[in-house]
Amino acid sequence: MSNGLKNHCRSQFGNQVTSEERESAANDNNLTNIHKRYPSNIVQSSEGIILQGNGGATPNDETKVDQNQNIVKSQELKSNKAVDSDAKLIGIAGAWYDVKHFIAKHPGGPIIKEFIGKDATSVFRAFHDNSVLKHRRPVGTYQRSFADPATKAFAELHIFFKNNGFFESNQVWFTGKFVFLFCIYLSVYLMTKYIENWFILYTIAPFGLFLFWQQAGFLMHDFMHSHGTQVRNLDTWIGAFCGTVCFGVSGHWWQDDHRVHHGMTNTVDYEDGFMDPQAHEDVWAQNYKLFPFHSGKIQKFLISIQHFTFLPANIFIGRFGIMLDSFKEERRWFEWALWSIHWLIMYILLNNFSTWGEAILFYYISSTMEGILHIQLLISHYSKPFHEKKDICQETEWYRMQIESNINIVTPWWMDWFHGGLNFHIEHHLYPMMPRHNYRSASKHIQEVCKRLNIVYDEEGWFEAVANTLKSMKKMSHHYTLDPR
Ligand code: HEM
Questions:
Q1: Which of 144, 303, 171, 152 is nearest to 230 (CA)?
Q2: Could you state, in order of their start, the residue ranges of all structural domains in the chain?
Q3: Using one digit for the tens of pLDDT, what is the confidence trace for 141-162?
Q4: Which parts of the sequence are annotated with region: Disordered (predicted)?
């Protein structure tokens, strides 16, 4: 970060410079040093972009350019005559990294390859601490440009949030969530075991089971983003417990799709058939950019009635759809083992009913109530624009794409728990490493930046968002009927 940028950030937020800020500043300043000391050659990368490479440059010998982050050492520069012809380059803060041997091992999964040949600084910062670059050596440099002021503004805000503890987890808060989850399960168990009143058995008790699934789903989301203990492997297993054991959907399957969804929200690619996996269903085309993926008589018919089927499909079959989707594709034995524990805890509940017919009725009523969760998640994106993969981090800057692809749901603070904090979907997508208990206070700062840059910060009431989704689906259905291409 440049000094100007730093000062601007400090004056805007009245904040002290911390080691974190200095580290980030060092990152950008040192990259400037690389440019100054080693006049670069221009190399054409394998992705057809212009790379300012180090090949043939004469480094100032005694220098280690970056003491803190080990970015470029003179010895390494000497041996790095040219960038491999098959290099897979990702640009971060002005430095190119060759990830060709790393893609398959990347802890964040294959989403990394969608950013090859691009300046991925914003998306990189959204998901990582700078320390993950400590042992990586760049193979060249490039000049970052901030064509879109949003990129700079949200990067500054990221630093502000980091310096002010917005990314820190409150583990007492998360413990409370687990106690709540356990209490819900226990009360549903006690109701179904000891109460014979049909009203309680078929309204309040199923509502309890719905809440158990819904809250477990939100906790899966938190932990798969490593918001809990902030130790990634441990959080992933806790997330799998919440997702697979409690919610009944494969946690790891969901995490794989969710990472892609975050990196490339509401995005498609016509060359390789890419679609944001969590913004696409075979039975709907909520945006005209999805039309080319839908053909055939049945799909055409379903799209023509999608504004009628959206709510009932979510309510009546949403839960079964996501459970089946996850285990249709899941090949990890441990996920199947965890799923059998899920059915064991469901069996313990259902066994309290005197007949299987009653048990199935109870389970089905809970499942229809759980349709609310699916609607909650889809309305955050469904009426928003779609993008093409080739444009992300090129034509459309990543932060801008996130703001354009998300809607917040306006609720009073005491309803945040019911939305799993995802009523602040803009906040979550801009800064996915931030735990949800901080979204409400972070939102003020984000709104301020949006206001300053004249960016629409879309927030709607729950019913308004549902109505707008249906309206948009109706419009798209009409467009599809006119021209399905
Ligand atoms: C040189 C480039 C990159 C390197 C060296 C790298 C490295 C890593 C490492 C070490 C982790 C694990 C972090 C931890 O344990 O705390 C990680 C996680 C992750 N990375 Fe990358 N990464 C790179 C680029 C990218 C890009 C371009 C994306 C695009 C979306 C990406 C997405 C992710 C995601 C989603 C995670 C998991 C984070 C989470 O679920 O919260 N990475 N990466």
A1: 171
A2: 3-145, 148-485
A3: 888 877 799 999 999 999 999 9
A4: 1-32
